[in-house]
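Figure 3 (text version): structure tokens given as input.
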């Protein structure tokens, strides 16, 4: 009984739409265009965001433990008499050698985290000299075999490999921009001056331009080479840690900092400003694409409103022969759902085509071909369909509610 009644109401809705083919086509086209551009814009924005976050996560170790302290250590007096009124005057702070004290224990604790890999390093500054030209270089001493598992330096090299630092005595990897300023290339030798003296370094690798995480004036050498150049044997001042789940980095960093006291920065903390901008970007994106779907729903509202206006006499007859207010609402809401479903299906095809076109575009960036990252996940299709159906139902329900309130007596009396 109920199924037959619903089939009857659905048939009436289809009949109404088929009689107004031009308006129906315009409404369906509006929904299709809205859904198609929703898919294209959201795929572009979400895909680029996911690619950006992935690059942000993998650009450097997930956690960096440095030889810095977030707050200075208390003096001996306050430590000896906690809670007492202690006043110190004329004391001289002892200069301590920078570096991570007890770093093997920190390495062991980091490696004990399931799926984590820790890489020790030493950073410092030297001056490169060649033919009267001088350039400051921040060197980072690393263990190449471990560093390749912790960071993405290897993938950002234009030429050379990290392993070459182990096979070439005095090898150094610098950026293309710095090499251009010095006028050097692969295999060239430059003089490096530091607190440990002057020595020769050979260029064994160049990393690509535009790698902000590496720094235009940064260079990589072997860890023991950095310790010798800087006169700091057996000392490291930084530990990079890569964890299995990047989103657990903040919790692991807090545990290490609480245990050892040294500053442990997660990638979330280092990129807090960028992540907050991404949140604002998401709000703007969904506001824009939702406005597109909202505008498309006005076509449905127009079609159903005109149908109600043209069918007032038919509505009165239907009410007089026993159709309830709910039945009439269902008829016109069904029209909105049909228009929305047809528009969604066409919009899916349009969106798929637009994403295909966007996916074929190449942009030269720093000498490399860059393809636009797109999110083609089913979630976007479902979200577009749900939003369109919701907007279509609401747009159809407003005039349907008005149709259901029609008094058949007044209409038939006026027609007579």
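Below: residues designed for each position.
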């Amino acid at each position: 009984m109920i199924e037959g009644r619903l089939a009857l109401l659905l048939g009436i809705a289809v009949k109404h739409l088929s009689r107004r083919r031009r308006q129906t086509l315009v409404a369906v086209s509006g929904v299709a265009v809205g859904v198609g551009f929703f898919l294209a814009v959201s795929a572009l924005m979400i895909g680029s965001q996911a690619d950006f976050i992935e690059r942000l996560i993998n650009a450097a170790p997930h956690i960096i433990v440095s030889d810095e302290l977030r707050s200075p250590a208390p003096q001996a007096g306050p430590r000896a008499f906690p809670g007492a009124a202690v006043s110190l005057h004329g004391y001289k702070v002892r200069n301590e050698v920078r570096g991570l004290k007890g770093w093997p224990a920190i390495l062991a604790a980091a490696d004990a985290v399931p799926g984590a890999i820790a890489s020790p390093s030493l950073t410092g500054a030297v001056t490169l000299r060649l033919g009267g030209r001088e350039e400051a270089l921040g060197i980072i001493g690393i263990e190449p075999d471990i560093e390749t598992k912790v960071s993405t330096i290897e993938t950002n090299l234009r030429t050379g490999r990290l392993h070459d630092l182990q096979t070439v005595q005095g090898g150094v990897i610098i950026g293309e921009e710095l090499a251009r300023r010095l006028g050097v290339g692969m295999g060239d030798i430059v003089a490096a001056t530091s607190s440990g003296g002057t020595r020769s370094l050979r260029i064994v690798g160049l990393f690509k331009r535009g790698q902000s995480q590496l720094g235009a004036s940064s260079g990589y050498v072997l860890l023991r080479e950095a310790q010798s150049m800087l006169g700091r044997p057996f000392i490291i001042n930084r530990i990079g840690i890569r964890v299995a789940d990047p989103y657990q980095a903040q919790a692991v960093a807090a545990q290490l900092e609480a245990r050892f006291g040294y500053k442990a920065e997660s990638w979330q903390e280092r990129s807090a400003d960028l992540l907050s901008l991404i949140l604002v970007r998401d709000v703007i994106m969904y506001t824009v694409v939702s406005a597109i779907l909202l505008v498309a729903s006005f076509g449905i509202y127009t079609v159903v409103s005109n149908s109600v206006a043209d069918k007032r006499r038919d509505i009165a007859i239907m009410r007089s022969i026993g159709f309830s207010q709910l039945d009439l609402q269902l008829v016109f809401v069904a029209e909105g759902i049909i228009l929305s479903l047809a528009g969604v299906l066409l919009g899916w095809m349009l969106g798929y085509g637009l994403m295909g076109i966007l996916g074929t575009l190449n942009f030269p960036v720093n000498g490399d071909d860059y393809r636009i990252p797109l999110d083609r996940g089913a979630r976007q299709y479902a979200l577009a369909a749900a939003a369109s159906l919701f907007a279509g139902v609401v747009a159809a329900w407003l005039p349907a509610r008005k149709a259901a309130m029609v008094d058949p007596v007044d209409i038939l009396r006026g027609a007579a």
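The radius of gyration is 34 Å.
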